[in-house]
């Protein structure tokens, strides 16, 4: 099932759409030094379309420089990134998707980015994050 979703940064300077080819079945987190500070859903790279504000996007690369992380230069919100493990896919910040909150997912898998396969590690699932509303 493919669903086209609308998304934007906090201030609305960057507006984009993405096609979720598997709905929200691949929402994940990562425990690497950078990703553990945010969350994403994985989509094919060609399915992310910046509608407005491409000039407002700022790119950040670290460590090996393989993954490109994009942020709004106005409000600082992470919008999406090109995945290091598979550059043909982007991680899209679920909190940017209209009508979606990271708290909508009771259980989210955490990828073992600390032991990334491209660094000689095994990767896989490091654990799970659970959210239980009060």
UniProtKB/TrEMBL annotation:
<comment type="similarity">
    <text>Belongs to the Gfa family.</text>
</comment>
<protein>
    <submittedName>
        <fullName>GFA family protein</fullName>
    </submittedName>
</protein>
<dbReference type="InterPro" id="IPR006913">
    <property type="entry name" value="CENP-V/GFA"/>
</dbReference>
<keyword id="KW-0862">Zinc</keyword>
<keyword id="KW-0479">Metal-binding</keyword>
<feature type="domain" description="CENP-V/GFA">
    <location>
        <begin position="5"/>
        <end position="119"/>
    </location>
</feature>
<dbReference type="InterPro" id="IPR011057">
    <property type="entry name" value="Mss4-like_sf"/>
</dbReference>
<dbReference type="Pfam" id="PF04828">
    <property type="entry name" value="GFA"/>
</dbReference>
<dbReference type="InterPro" id="IPR052355">
    <property type="entry name" value="CENP-V-like"/>
</dbReference>
